[in-house]
Amino acid sequence: MSRPQLVLAHGKEKALLRRHPWIFSGAVKRIVGEPQEGDLVDVLAADGHWMAVGHYQSESIICKVLSFDTQSVDACFFEQRLKSAIDYRRRLGFFSEGNSTNVFRLVNGEGDYLPGLICDWYNGVLVMQAHSVGMHRLFPMLTEMFVKLLTPHIVSVFDKSSATVPGGSDDGFLWGDETPEREICEHGNRMFINFYEGQKTGFFVDQRENRHLVGELAKGRRVLNCFGYTGGFSLAALRGGAEYVETVDISKKAIELCNRNVELNFGKDAPHKGTVADVLQFLGAESGGPECVSPLSAFRFPLSAPNPPFDLIILDPPAFAKNHRALQQGLKGYRNINQKAMEMIADGGLLFTFSCSQAVSRDDFQTMVFTAAANAHKKVRIVRQLPHAIDHPVSIYHPEGEYLKGLLLQIEKA
User: Fold this and answer.
1) Per residue in 328-362, pLDDT tens?
2) 125, 140, 161, 387: which sits with the fewest CB atoms below 10 Å from its CB?
3) How many CB atoms lie within 10 A of CB 302?
4) What is the pTM of this model?
5) Which of 231, 223, 169 is nearest to 198 (CA)?
6) What's the pLDDT tens digit per position in 364-399?
7) How far apart are CA 234 and CA 211, in angstroms?
8) 8 A C-beta contact, residue 409 and residue 379
9) What order do you get walking across the sheet with 117-122 strand by strand?
10) Spatial separation of the C-alpha atoms in residues 72 and 69, rounded to whole Å
């Protein structure tokens, strides 16, 4: 039985000829058949010749392309794609015995030629997250394939798609041990991951190498980790010999888990404070003060004038611009927090600043930092560009996959 077809309007095949894996609804002239959400559809040029096959969805991105080369998208097709993704990580050494890191991305959507699928590895627990109905339908089959390809390392498979798959779903274990929390290790730092309550797939795996860099530069510094979540950057700074670290997040649960992680690695007397606060209020030193959740009382400094000031600050906020309609408002938010951080940082201090908004381009981000620096009347050196880690490959045909933008800056008085 033939599949439904999307027939492109004349001249709209250029993106497909460049092998871009997204087809927008405005490029489609007519639909042949009645595809349902998640169905496989063939994509035809205006003259009727076959161009691609992908998953249909009733959104502005009407199709996510799985293949430009074959119409046969069967179990063998998906197993080969999964094997290719796993082999890539094996060559990078992520499954090597004795590796101090056992958390990494195993499938990175379009970067592994599986649009709509994200899979992260947490010390034997595979967390799958679907960003399309078509991919979510395949989870039973994909689970069997992963168990086959990853035995004996794999202990369980978890579906974390409730917030990402259109129409919603229930998070839960699909196979194996159903323990809701798992201890992982990243560059020697041990952390607890809660698969039900954690953001994203449970942790922000993409920042691994940037956290490691913070650790390399933290010795003797006073570190402020904004939007700190469960403390990944804070642990790296403490392991690197930071004099003092403060973690700020609006979530009390996140800070409580951050404090657990700090104690797990460095004991109750670590020079760390977990602070529950809105970061904009914290950086602006607004009255009232945040709530401190920490076993320590010796490191309680007034927010309005930290003394001595922080000389390494990390800004890793959530996506302020989730789409292009929100771009200008999002850039304003990024500019505000960067300006505040530049104003409060010690002279000659280091600022790690990030945006994970796909709608924010690298040029947008750098222009925003330029404006924040000018408003703060600071001299600013760009020390390094900060991308996501090597287990997050990006297809050269899909530049949107390079969603994480980051800069390491040195801030000085003008």
Assistant:
1) 888 888 899 999 999 999 999 999 999 988 888 88
2) 140
3) 9
4) 0.90
5) 231
6) 989 999 999 999 999 999 999 999 999 999 999 999
7) 8
8) no
9) 103-108, 117-122, 125-130, 156-159, 172-176
10) 9
